[in-house]
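Ticket #4471: structure export looks truncated?
Reporter: QA, pipeline team
Priority: medium

Steps to reproduce: submit the single chain below to the structure queue and open the exported record.
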Amino acid sequence: MAEVRAKKALGQHFLTDKGIARRIAEALSGGGAALEVGCGMGVLTQFLLERNDLTTWGAEIDTESVDYLHVHYPEFTPRLMEGDFLQMDLEKLFPDGVKVIGNFPYNISSQIFFKVLDYKGLIPEVVGMIQREVALRIASPAGNRDYGILSVLLQAWYDIEYLFTVSEGVFNPPPKVKSAVVRLKRNNVKELGCDEKLFVKVVKAAFSQRRKMLKNPLKAVFGPMRSEEHRFFTLRAENLSVSDYVELTNWVAERL
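Actual output as written to the record:
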């Protein structure tokens, strides 16, 4: 029970269904290095290690889990890193790139995706099991109420697939919500066609008051601009596509 409480504090719900673990492992394409984030007791790890078309690495912050993995998967020990994935320098660790996979802790799943964005030039693919609500959000198209900041930022650089839903009963401890598995594959975009930092700022500003027309949150963040109106100003944040946000970012840049 002490171990379960410790894992729960870390936001980790351990998958116990090996069939689902195998499906997650098989969802990642072959070739190159794969980094499992949050290996836990190795239920997903064992199926990744079976794959001859991947070199599997692991990142695990919990010392008890690391000790368990050393004992039960000794062949994995040289490639198991004890530490916080969010603090890792992936460019130094994987200069040739790395795919990311895992049963992501609910409480840091959004941070993991922001980390992926920071290293989008190195991460060609992500397969992750996350809270279903977050999965729906990042896979949602424009015009849907689930569409949000992460939807826009991730879809700018990745093609996103909602693969399947996972029920609460296959975890220990069981979460209070359903989970889902998503797959992100790097698209062909090399440059957005606008200032990327300003793009992020515009998107975050737009969704800061998502129920209001865009002119309100944009003026609140950027202040009065030389030209006060844009054709998107009467829309809400969820109505704009990635390309719309690129256009809006360039419009804002000209008026700052």
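Status: closed, not a bug. The export was complete when the record was re-opened. Leaving a note from the reviewer for reference: The longest strand covers residues 158-166.
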